[in-house]
Amino acid sequence: MASFLKQLEALFPADRLLVDPVHLAAYESDGLTAYRATPRAVAIPETAEEVVDAVRLCAEHGVPFVARGSGTSLSGGSLPVEEGIVIALNRLNRILKLDFDSHVAIVEPGVLNLQVTQAALPHGLHFAPDPSSQQICTIGGNVAFNSGGAHCLRHGMTSNHVLGLRAVLATGEVVQFDGASRERIGPDFTGLFVGCEGLFGIALEITLRLTPRAECFHTVLAGYESLEAAGDAVASVVASGLLPGAMEIMDRLAIQAAEASVKCGYPENAEAVMIVELEGPREEVAADREKLAALVEASRPAEVRVARDDAERAAIWKGRKSAFSAVGRLSPDFIVQDGVVPRKRLGEALRRIGAMSREAGLRVANVFHAGDGNLHPLILYDGREPGALDRAEALAGRILRLCIEMGGSITGEHGIGVEKRDYLPEQFGPDDIDVMRRIRLAFDPDEIANRGKMFPGAEAPALSQHGLHPLEKAGVISRE
Amino acid sequence: MTLEPDSPDALADCIRAAPHCLAVGAGTKPNLAATAPEKFRRVSTRRLTGIVDYEPSEFTVTVRAGTPVAEIESVLAAEGQYLPFDPPLARAGATIGGTVAAGLSGSGACRFGPIRDFLIGVRFVDGEGRLVTGGGKVVKNAAGFDLPKFLIGSLGRLGALAELTFKVFPKPEASVTFAIQRMAPFNAARLLNRIGRSSLDLDAMACDPEGEILWGRLAGNESALEKRLERVRSEIQREYEFTVTTPEAGARFWESLREFTWLPPKSPLVKIPIPIGGGAEIEPLKGTRFDHLWPHPGPRFYDLGGNVIWATTASELEKFLQIRNFTGLILRGHGESAHSLWFGAPRPETAIARALKHALDPHDRFPPLT
Question: Buried b vs exposed e over B163-188: b needs ≥16 C-beta within 10 Å?
C-alpha cells in the first residue's frame, strides 16, 4: 500500500489527493447514511486521462477503488472500501458535445443530471430520466445505477437514454461502446454496462439521447377516502388505454408530512392522493384529458384538482417530490425501500405492509410510482432506541421478500448496492448469480471496482446511525 | 436431423447434449445461421412456442422464443395493446427469439424506441447448458446486470434464448400516413432532424432516397389526428408536395417496408445503424457536382426516423461504408450465405468482447461472433 500511495501522489497534486482523516470524513458515507467506511485516500481527477491512470495504478497493485459522483446513492452504492481509494468524479463535469441535429449530448460523468436538460431545453429537447435527486446527482451515478424517476413507464430508465459510452474498465482497458445511433448491431455492450453498479469500471464519456420535451402537460390530483380507492383509480387509468407520463400515489402519513413541510395544498383528511400527468402534443392531450376526467370521476374521489397553469402543476409536484424528506422530519431516522410489485397487486402489497408495520411497532409511510408498481415504503425509527435499527431493517427485509413473492423486484431504481445484496439470491437462482459473477470477472478479474456491492457474502461494513443526508436536511435533494 | 425442443428445459437438455450448436428460428434472416460452420448443430425453436404469461393490466407479456411475432401481435391486439417497435418480417414468419437475437426493430421504433427499450426479462441457456434468468417480469427493475439488453443482437452466439418478457403499450386508436415528395435525400435528412426535434411526436418516419419521398406516420386519438396533420403540413416547405395517403395505401407502404418487399424477393439485405443526423452525412452529394464521388449504393431505405439504413450488399456501398467507418449486419446474402455476418468497416476486436464471450460460453459451444 505504501508504494501504491507514493505512486498515486505522483499522479495527483496534494490538493487533489486527500489522505487526511478530516478530509476523508466527507466521503465516508452516501445517501444510505446507516453505513460508513473510511477509504485510504480520495483522488480528485480533472481529466479522463487522470481517471485512467488512477484505475491502471489500482489494477497494477490490486487496490480496490470506488467511483463517486455526488454521493446520493440510496443503496450505499458509493460506500468506500476501507482498504481502497475513492475516485471522486465531480470535476469531470464538462458537457463535451451538444448535437441538436443528432439529438445527442456527450458528457463527462460528473455532469449533473439537471444540467443536461437545462442545456438542451432552449432547443426543445431534454434528458428524460429525472430521479428526485436530479438537481445534484451525476450522470456517471445515473449510468452506474440505471436511475429511474417518475416517468419510467412511458419513458424508460437511464439505460433507455444512454446510446453509447467510453469507459475505463477495471483492467485498465479503455473501450468505446456504440455511438450516437438509437440502433446498433451485435451484443448491446452499452446496455450491459448501464446498471453495473460500478462493478465494471468507470464511464468517462457518455452519449445521451435527448428527446423532445412534451409540448403540453395535464396534471390532475385526486384525493381518496382509502388507499385502495386510489389504487383502483390507477388500475382503471391503465386499463383504459391511456399512457400517462406519470402516475403517483401518496398515503395519509406522507400527505400530512408534505403538507406540514411545504404547504402544497393537498386535500386535508384524504387517506390517499393520486397524481396523474398526461403529456404530448396539445391536440393529443386535449383528447386524452376528457377520457381521464371520466375515469377519475368514476373512481369516486373525495376531491379533484386540475392544474390550470405551470405554477399549479409545480405545486402538485412539489408535495410529491418533497414527501420523503418531509416524512423523514417526523422521525430521527428512517429507511427508504425500493421494491417493485406487479401493479395489480399494489393494494394487496400495501395492506400487507400495513400489517407488518403494526406487528413491528414501526410507522411506515408510503409514496410510490403507482404507474410502474414501484413502492417506496419509508420506515420510521429512532436509532437511539436499542434494537430499533435492527427492527427497522428486519421490516425492510420482510417488505423486500414480499416483493419477490409477488413476482416483483427488490429494486426498481436504487440498485442493490450494499443495502440489498443479501436479497439478490432470493430474487435470482445460483446459476443466474454465477453468470453475473462471471460477467463481473470478465470486466474485473481482481474484483477491485466497487468491491462488496451487489453480490452477497462480502464483509459487511460498519453500521451506524444517522438521520437525513446533509443535503436533504438542507432541502437540496429529495428521495424518490 | 434438426433438434426441436418444446420447452425451456428441453432446450437446455438439447444444448447440453450438443458440444457445438446454434439455436435457429424461422430462417427469415438466413445469413445469421448460414455463416456458422456446419459443425454447429442447429437447434430449432419451431416447437418452443406459446404465450407463457400475458397480463394486459401490467403492460407485460412473456413468450417462448419460437413464438411467431405475428401470433404475439394478434394476442396483444385483442386486448388493445402492441409491441411498439414493429418487429420486422412478422408476415414472413419471424419468431420473437430471432428478432431479439438479430436485434431488429421496425419503423414504429421511431416514437417509443427500439427493441432494447421493451425487452425486460429473459431466460436463456448459457454455454454451460444452464437455464439462466436475467431481468424480470415487471416494467421497472434495476436488480442485477442487464442481461436482457446484452443478449439483444447476440445472434445466438452467447446463449440460446428460451423465454422473453416484454413491456407492451396500449395501441393508438388511429393512425394516418403522409408522403412528402420531390425530397432530395440531403433535405430529407435535415427535415428528419428538424421534425424529430419538434414536439410533433411522429410515430414513424422513413425515407426512400431514390424515389425522393419522405414518409411519415402519426398515431393517437382519432379526434386529434386531423389537427396534428395540419401542423406537420405547416412545417413542410411549399416546394414539396405533401400527400395524405388512404388508410389502405398507408398500411400497404409500412407493411412493404417492414417485410422488405420493396426489394426483389431473396435479394440481399443489410442493416446499417447510423447516427441520427447521419443521413445528411452519407447522402449529401447526390445531384450535385460531387455526384461522381457517391457510388452506386443500390436500393436502400432510411428507417426508424433516420437511425438505420436497410440496403443490399452492393460492393460500392461496402467500400463507401469502409471509408466512412460504418458497419452493417448482413441478414440475407446472395443465395444461402454471405460468408460473413458483417458488412463495411470491420468491427473492432476488443479484449472485453472476448472475455464476455468466454464468460457466457467458456467451451465455445456456440459459434464465434466474428
Answer: bbbbbbbbbbeebbbbbbeebbbbbb
